[in-house]
Amino acid sequence: SQTIHQWPATLVQPVGSPLSLECTVEGTSNPNLYWYRQAAGRGLQLLFYSVGIGQISSEVPQNLSASRPQDRQFILSSKKLLLSDSGFYLCAWSVSRTYEQYFGPGTRLTVT
Amino acid sequence: GEDVEQSLFLSVREGDSSVINCTYTDSSSTYLYWYKQEPGAGLQLLTYIFSNMDMKQDQRLTVLLNKKDKHLSLRIADTQTGDSAIYFCAESGGTKAAGNKLTFGGGTRVLVKP
After folding, report:
1. Which of A23, A34, B45, B88 could bridge across to A74 with cysteines, CB 3.0–4.6 Å?
2. Is A26 exposed, middle or buried (0-12, 13-18, 19+ CB in 10 A)?
3. Which of B113, B111, B102 is nearest to B26 (CA)?
4. Run of H or E including A32
5. pLDDT exceeds 70 at position B1
6. CB of B34 within 8 A of CB of B76?
7. Nearest beta carbon to residue B100 from set A99, A103, A104
C-alpha cells in the first residue's frame, strides 16, 4: 500500500533562516506531488505541484521554492524565512489514473 | 478563478444527522471531494463524487450534488463524537495534464455534543 511521509513534524525557525521540508511517497511510481499551506487551521492554499521529476509548477508568488530530485521525493525550501511563512505545510500525492489525492501528516512551522 | 465556500461552524448532538454544505463556482468542476481533518493531523479523504452523479452513499456518509446550483452537501448519519473535526470541500477540473489541482473551501468545523 502507499504511504506518504513528511519531516520534520514540527519546526521552529528564526526569521531569516533557511528552510527545507521533505516529503516522500512509498508504494507508487510517477505520482503527482503537491505542497499546500494551511494557515490558522483553516483552508488550504496550493503552493506547488509536480507531475514529474524536475517539473515544478508554482501557484502563488512567494518566498518559497520546491524541487523534485527523485520520482517520489518533493522538497519545499526557502533561503530566508519570513514571519508570514508560519503555518501547517501539507504534502499530497495522486496518480494520474485516478482523481484521489492523499495527504501526509503535515509539518507545523513556526517562524519567530 | 475558482471559488469554494463553506459555512464556518456546525454543532450537532450525538446520534443526530449532520449536513455540511458547500458551494462552488467553477462550472467545469469534474470531481468534488470531502476531506476530514482532525486536530494537528493531515487531511483524510472521505469520499468524492464525479460531476455526472447526483448522489453517492458510503456507509454513514451521503454526498448530494446539485450541479445546476453548484451545491454539494455531505450528510453524516448517526453522528458520533469521533466525527468532530474540520471538514473540507474541494473541487477539481480533473485535468490530468494540469496536475489535477484541487481548490479547497475554508472548512467547516463540526462539533458533536454528547
Report:
1. A23
2. exposed
3. B102
4. strand A32-38
5. no
6. no
7. A99
A23 closest CA partner among A57, A66, A83: A66
Has residue A82 got a pLDDT over 90?
yes
Measured torsion, CA atoms of residues B47, A95, A60, B26, in degrees rounded to the nearest 10 = -50
- Rounded Cα distance, B57 and B74, in Å: 10
Question: What cell numbers appear for B76 in the block?
Answer: 453524516
Q: Which residues from B are below 8 Å from A89, CB to CB?
A: none
- Residue A91 pLDDT greater than 90, yes or no: yes
Interface contact B44-A59, CB threshold 8 A:
no
Nearest to A69 by CA among A22, A101, A8: A22
| pLDDT tens profile B24-39 | 988 777 889 999 999 8
Whether A34 and A57 have beta carbons less than 8 Å apart is answered as no
C-alpha cell at B75: 450528510
In one letter, which amino acid is A55?
A: Q
